Amino acid sequence: QQVTNDNRQNRPSIKVHPVDDSADVETATIIQGLIRHIEYASDADIAYDTAFESAVRGGFGYFRIITDFASPESFDQEILVKRIRNPLSVYFDPFSQEPDGSDANFAFVTEDLSADEYRSKYPDSEPCRPGTDWTSLGNSAPGWFTEEGARIAEYFYKEMRDATIHLLST
Question: Can you list the alpha helix ranges (DSSP code H) found in 42-145?
Answer without folding.
Answer: 44-58, 115-121
